[in-house]
Specification:
mainly beta, 7-stranded antiparallel beta sheet, 1 helix, 51% strand, globular
Length: 303
């Protein structure tokens, strides 16, 4: 077994999307090969209703799949196929945009005004870019949770792990998507397929992702006051950790434990032509999508 080294640790950056929704983006709209097959990851946790209630009005998607995971609050959604529904706390929605879909997502806070969740974009290979759009909504109660003897908890959202298989399937990137909590002071190792790109996203507590005996942080070179220095970086809330090659990931939980998403997928390794919510392989395919949006032929008839 070989430990995957931490090759990059960075904080999610504040941005706005939709009709003025405040969120934090861990990655997206940069180098698409960096975490291939994944294109974008948004953290839309927010406790101020005016910062999210205008939501994401009608907009198109083509050539990708989106996985939305709600922790608190609800998201009402509807699309050009006539699908409507509501995602509640703990629920997951997988959407294959395929050949094209128009949809809207309207978040609502819970009784405390909290709207918490994440959205991941996964690329589709060229052979599936124009596949028929489809949805899969999964309730939180249907997501298996494994509790280990040391108190570690793992929710298996997509893929198989420790003998359990998540309810979301059929995603082209064949990802593994885990919600993991490791209790205070516990050091834990998790297997990750050697041939997958992998990242973690911390959203509660702190910990060190390395072969460390104590949660002192990962030794990284950073710029401080214009000079490069080596410091110990303890990964905490809204931190993305990108891993190198290997077949396992080790984390040492801090004094309050750590909760994070561990996500991996098989790289597609194809050219990417990307404009907003439309991701194709060539610039001509992008231009074709834009023409179809303008002339009303973007949505393809069901076969």
């Amino acid at each position: 077994m070989s430990l995957r080294p931490t090759i990059e640790t960075r904080k999610a950056q504040a941005t706005m999307e939709g009709a003025g929704v405040h969120l934090h983006r861990a990655f997206g709209f940069h180098d698409p090969s960096e975490l291939d097959p994944f294109l974008l990851f948004d953290d839309f946790r927010n406790d101020i209703p005016s910062h999210f209630e205008r939501g994401f009005p009608w907009h198109p998607h083509r050539g990708i799949e989106t996985i939305t995971y709600v922790l608190n609050g609800t998201v009402d959604h509807g699309d050009s196929l006539g699908n409507v529904g509501t995602l509640g706390a703990g629920d997951v929605q997988w959407m294959t945009a395929g050949s094209g879909i128009l949809h809207q997502e309207m978040p609502k806070g819970n009784a405390q005004g909290q709207m918490h969740g994440f959205q991941l974009w996964a690329n589709l290979p060229s052979s599936l870019k124009m596949t028929a759009p489809r949805y899969q909504d999964v309730q939180g109660k249907d997501i298996p949770e494994i509790i280990d003897d040391d108190g570690t908890r793992v929710k298996v959202i997509v893929g198989s792990f420790w003998g359990k298989t998540g309810p979301v399937d059929g995603i082209a990137a064949d990802p593994q998507y885990l919600d993991i909590f490791v209790p205070a002071g516990v050091k834990k190792t998790f297997p990750v397929d050697t041939y997958r790109r992998a990242f973690a996203y911390v959203f509660e507590g702190v910990g060190a992702f390395a072969d460390a005996s104590a949660p002192e942080g990962v030794l990284l070179e950073k710029e401080v006051r214009g000079e490069e220095v080596n410091i110990r970086d303890l990964s905490g809330n809204r931190t993305l950790i990108r891993f190198g090659t290997g077949d396992e990931v080790t984390v040492q939980a801090g004094p309050e434990g750590i909760r994070f998403l561990l996500i991996s997928g098989a790289p597609i390794q194809e050219p990417v032509a990307w404009h907003g919510p439309i991701v194709m392989n060539t610039q001509e395919e992008l231009r074709q999508a834009m023409r179809e949006l303008r002339n009303g032929t973007f949505i393809k008839p069901a076969h």
